[in-house]
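Q: Please design a sequence for this.
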């Protein structure tokens, strides 16, 4: 058997490898450098009955400060391949397939696609993390979701111990969910006994299907406003990407790129894309006392999913609460077809928790100053601080509106059900 993986002499803590910068020591950290090594690392952990946590960019994980007694596996494979011609002949089929191993940085992939004039992914610019995790929670923003682009996902099935290709139709994609995520939970935020904090299916690679073209329609009203155009207008892809990055930066919804200069995150992004991301934050760096002011970016992004409630619950909300009718297919079938999605940010704000809210003056765990839905680590917060803040918000929203907020990040060692 070839030497397929390497275990470092010392291991990082979860705080070193997550965007929240929180979490305890790791018993074993393995970084396979090929597909066989990845499967072997996962299979070794499973056959020895050890807890397994696959980690990508660590941007959707809030981990306990307690020691993690198992194996953390990070896929170091990066790369993008295009099996079809990138530029089809005049009048030909504009469809283009694009494949990337799970460890590829997501925004490196988006940036590549935009440069290659591939349409459909530009709205997902600037989302932190990896290609592998993107399909676990079906990342989405500005009217696009990765689930709408997936052709197939190559997985290692930890239960049946085989590799398989899951097609988009098998993956049960819904709002911030997929078949992969569903295998991790018995009920919302209640971990499965076997497959938590990593799904039954470990992603090996993802194939997306995009279209060739140099401009795309701006579907999202918020984005259209930022671009000063009508929704539905067609604009060059690069312009849309830059607008998305600007809007995200204004909400603290880009990760701190300086993390990729640390020992444990170095090499996890393509050098040229990292340079661009670093250049983009130079202007943000000087705080009033010359300190770095990127602390609002140490988060998991949106901490709670937007609740999907029955029509009756939605009717009881104040008239100005946002309401979006949703397809019941991916929701609780018992609730009937009339389901309504409302805004977690609106509920939090209208329960008295405004931007910047914390449980005590100077507390290192606080809501972002730019975005009500992001819990941030202002430096030195522990998992208990973030859990106390999250619970206070859940209880407040429950009390005010009778709606229970479900966390979006995966929370090993932490119960926020
Ligand atoms: C500033 C900020 C902004 C964000 N904005 C958005 C947004 O706009 N939209 C959105 O949808 N999300 C957003 N997120 C959340 C996050 O970026 C996504 O969930 C992302 O896909 C997580 O990727 P990751 O590689 O960091 O996953 P990780 O946090 O490393 O892992 C998350 C989960 O995926 C599992 N996992 C990781 N790799 C694999 C694999 N190969 N196979 C199987 N399971 C795996 C892990 O075990 C874990 O359960 C944001 C986060 C931050 C910090």
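A: Design:
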């Amino acid at each position: 058997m070839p030497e397929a993986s390497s275990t470092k002499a010392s291991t990082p803590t979860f705080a070193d490898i997550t965007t929240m910068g929180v979490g305890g020591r790791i018993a074993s950290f393995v970084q396979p450098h090929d597909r066989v090594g990845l499967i072997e690392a996962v299979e070794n952990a499973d056959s020895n009955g050890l807890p397994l946590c696959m980690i990508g960019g660590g941007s959707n994980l809030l981990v306990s400060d307690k020691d993690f007694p198992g194996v953390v596996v990070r896929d170091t494979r990066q790369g993008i391949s295009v099996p079809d011609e990138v530029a089809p002949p005049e009048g030909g089929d504009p469809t283009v397939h694009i494949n990337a191993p799970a460890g590829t940085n997501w925004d490196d992939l988006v940036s590549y696609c935009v440069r290659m004039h591939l349409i459909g992914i530009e709205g997902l610019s600037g989302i932190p993390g990896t290609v592998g995790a993107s399909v676990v929670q079906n990342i989405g923003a500005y009217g696009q979701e990765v689930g709408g682009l997936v052709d197939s996902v190559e997985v290692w099935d930890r239960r049946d111990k085989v590799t398989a290709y899951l097609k988009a139709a098998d993956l049960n994609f819904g709002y911030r969910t997929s078949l992969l995520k569903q295998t991790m939970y018995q009920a919302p935020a209640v971990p499965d006994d076997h497959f938590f904090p990593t799904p039954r299916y470990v992603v090996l690679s993802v194939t997306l299907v995009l279209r060739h073209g140099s401009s795309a329609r701006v579907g999202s009203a918020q984005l259209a406003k930022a671009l000063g155009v009508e929704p539905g207008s067609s604009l060059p892809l690069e312009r849309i990407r830059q607008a998305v990055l600007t809007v995200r930066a204004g909400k603290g919804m880009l990760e701190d790129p300086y993390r990729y200069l640390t020992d444990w995150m170095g090499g996890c992004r393509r050098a040229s894309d990292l340079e661009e991301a670093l250049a983009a934050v130079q202007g943000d760096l000087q705080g009033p006392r010359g300190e770095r002011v990127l602390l609002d970016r140490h988060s998991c992004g949106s901490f709670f999913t937007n609740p999907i409630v029955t029509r009756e619950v939605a009717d009881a909300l104040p008239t100005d609460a946002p309401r979006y009718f949703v397809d019941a297919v991916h929701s609780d079938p018992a609730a009937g077809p009339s389901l309504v999605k409302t805004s977690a940010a609106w509920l939090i704000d209208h329960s008295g928790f405004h931007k910047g809210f914390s449980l005590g003056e100077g507390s290192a765990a606080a809501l972002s100053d730019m975005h009500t839905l992001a819990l941030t680590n202002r430096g030195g917060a522990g998992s208990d601080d973030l859990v106390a803040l999250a619970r206070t918000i859940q209880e407040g929203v429950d009390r005010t509106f009778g709606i229970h907020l479900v966390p979006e990040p995966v929370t090993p060692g932490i119960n926020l059900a």
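Q: Thanks. Anything notable?
A: DSSP finds eleven helices and 19 strands in the chain. The two ends are 43 Å apart (CA to CA).
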